[in-house]
Automatic annotation (TrEMBL):
<protein>
    <submittedName>
        <fullName>DUF1611 domain-containing protein</fullName>
    </submittedName>
</protein>
<dbReference type="Pfam" id="PF17396">
    <property type="entry name" value="DUF1611_N"/>
</dbReference>
<feature type="domain" description="D-glutamate N-acetyltransferase-like C-terminal">
    <location>
        <begin position="147"/>
        <end position="345"/>
    </location>
</feature>
<dbReference type="InterPro" id="IPR011669">
    <property type="entry name" value="DgcN-like"/>
</dbReference>
<dbReference type="Pfam" id="PF07755">
    <property type="entry name" value="DUF1611"/>
</dbReference>
<dbReference type="InterPro" id="IPR035402">
    <property type="entry name" value="DgcN-like_N"/>
</dbReference>
<feature type="domain" description="D-glutamate N-acetyltransferase-like N-terminal">
    <location>
        <begin position="43"/>
        <end position="140"/>
    </location>
</feature>
<dbReference type="InterPro" id="IPR027417">
    <property type="entry name" value="P-loop_NTPase"/>
</dbReference>
<dbReference type="InterPro" id="IPR035086">
    <property type="entry name" value="DgcN-like_C"/>
</dbReference>
């Protein structure tokens, strides 16, 4: 039975298309739960959200403010999504007023911040008055429902692939989502494990927002999500979204993901034109080589492919960069938003030949791969 999507307006003032607007960008590109009818960002008002991301036209308009959006849309959307992902934990006074206004219009509030709106007395009171719901996506399970690592991950006998990166907001989730869609379209049953608020908003059925967990349970929650997906869905392959980077000094999520899912392979995401870690201008980006060495030193996993983010690159630069990476690292390298997922699918089929038995060959172009390491 087809899922009836709720209509949603995404708030992303002054951040759409930028690093802190990654939640809004992800929802514009893909959502199994929401039908995105507009984005709020006054700096880009009048533009098409898809085109602003460098993609094809999406017919999702960008509005200057909530009033303009509601005056131009044919109906009040079901939901108002806070679509920014800043380091700051709390919203501004102006943003608070907009959320209250959206409530007054009858819109449910979808929140991906660490600041839980469902525990804010003013928001709770307003929600009751307006008969709307508040959903805090990052809110972790109750303590009694959390899991510690059990070792049961060892009985998962299908490939588990982790999507790690060299930084935050560099395309790990996007590559995982695109590859998940591609595999399923080819007849390979693929299930994606969410580890952040955006992928949960996009409709991932398994997973949890890693950075909201008590550290003791982070590894166990990833393991449990993989086991649940394996037991319930009987997939051919499981893809696990990464967070941050193993080498990043500010965050621990990737280490917990690497330990919890014990992946059979890693696809490493990297933005070649990025000089410093996002939000940390004093921290230089690591090299792909150093990140691979670190991942393979602290786990039994092997990096099997590189996926690139084309931020701040021209279309003419990307092919040569891909060629350079493949020549230097001897790893298949691609940019899924520009070139699709064929090369990654071919890589998976090379490492895990059983996937070849499931694949619909007519849907996959033949792409010769470089010799594996």
């Amino acid at each position: 039975m087809a899922i009836v999507k709720e209509t949603a307006l995404v708030y992303c003032e002054n951040q759409f298309g930028l690093v802190d607007g990654k939640t809004a960008a992800g929802l514009v590109r893909h959502s199994e739960i929401y039908n995105i009818v507009g984005v709020i960002d006054s700096s880009l008002a009048g533009k098409d959200a898809g085109e602003e991301l460098g993609d094809k036209k999406s017919d999702i308009p960008i509005f200057a403010n909530l009033h303009e959006a509601l005056s131009q849309l044919s109906a009040v959307p079901n939901c108002y999504i806070y679509g920014k992902a800043p380091l700051e934990a709390s919203i501004s006074i102006d943003e608070r007023s907009l959320i209250l206004e959206a409530m007054a219009k009858g819109m449910d509030i979808i929140n991906g911040l660490h600041q839980f709106f469902s525990e804010d007395p003013e928001f709770v009171h307003m929600a009751v008055q307006c008969g709307i719901q508040i959903k805090d996506i990052r809110k972790p399970p109750q303590l009694e429902d959390l899991h510690i690592f059990s070792g049961q991950i060892s009985r998962v006998n299908v490939p588990v692939i982790a999507f790690l990166g060299t930084d935050c907001a560099c395309g790990k989730r996007t590559t995982a989502v695109e590859l998940n869609k591609a595999l399923n379209s080819l007849g390979i049953k693929s299930i994606m494990i969410a580890t952040g608020q955006t992928s949960l908003m996009q409709g991932a059925r398994y997973g949890v927002s890693m950075d909201a967990l008590v550290s003791q349970f982070a590894i166990g929650e990833i393991e449990n999500a993989v086991i649940q997906a394996f037991d319930n869905e009987h997939p051919d392959i499981i893809l696990v979204e990464g967070q941050s980077a193993v080498s990043h000094p500010a965050f621990m999520s990737s280490v917990a993901i690497l330990k919890g899912c014990m992946p059979d392979g890693v696809i490493l995401q990297h933005p070649p034109a990025r000089e410093f870690r996002c939000d940390f201008p004093n921290l230089a980006m690591p090299t792909v080589e150093s990140e691979i060495q670190l991942i393979e030193a602290i786990s039994q996993s092997q990096v099997i492919a590189i996926a690139l983010s084309h931020e701040n690159l021209t279309p003419a630069e990307i092919p040569q960069i891909i060629k350079d990476y493949e020549n230097r690292l001897r790893l298949p390298t691609t940019d899924v938003l520009n070139y699709g997922c064929q090369k990654l699918v071919q890589t998976l089929c090379h490492y895990f030949p059983k996937l070849n038995q499931k694949i619909k060959r007519e849907g996959l172009d033949t792409i010769p791969l470089l010799a594996m390491r």
